[in-house]
Description:
Layout: H1 2-10, H2 13-27, H3 33-47, H4 54-74, H5 78-82, H6 86-95, H7 102-118
Helix pairs in contact: 2-4
Protein name: DUF1048 domain-containing protein
InterPro entries: UCP029876
Amino acid sequence: MAAKWIELVTGSLEQKKQYRQYQTRLKALPEPYAAAAKALQRYFMYAGGGPEDGEMLITMTGDFTELWERAAADGTPVRDVVGDDPVEFADTFAQAYTGKRWVDKERARLAQAIDDAAGDGR
Length: 122
């Protein structure tokens, strides 16, 4: 019973466990794959490139981890994975995982604040 209450407040414990496992696998990657994955994850975090839904986030993180593990196993150069524009790669990768993103709430909040400040809606 306590586990259900905790999950209600904090989210799925199983999802948290999976997420931590993916993070451990990413940290275990050889260089330069670990550095590239870390940089992309940082971008996802700051650019709002990840979904808000826990299940979708786990799916995205799992696919991301497997992408880098395969690249490392095959010896695929980092540039062959991300291309010439790593920002475009990151944005395209994140967009593949549709759903509500945390930044959507902030965008709506900003639009509402401007509407309220304008008073007349314009």
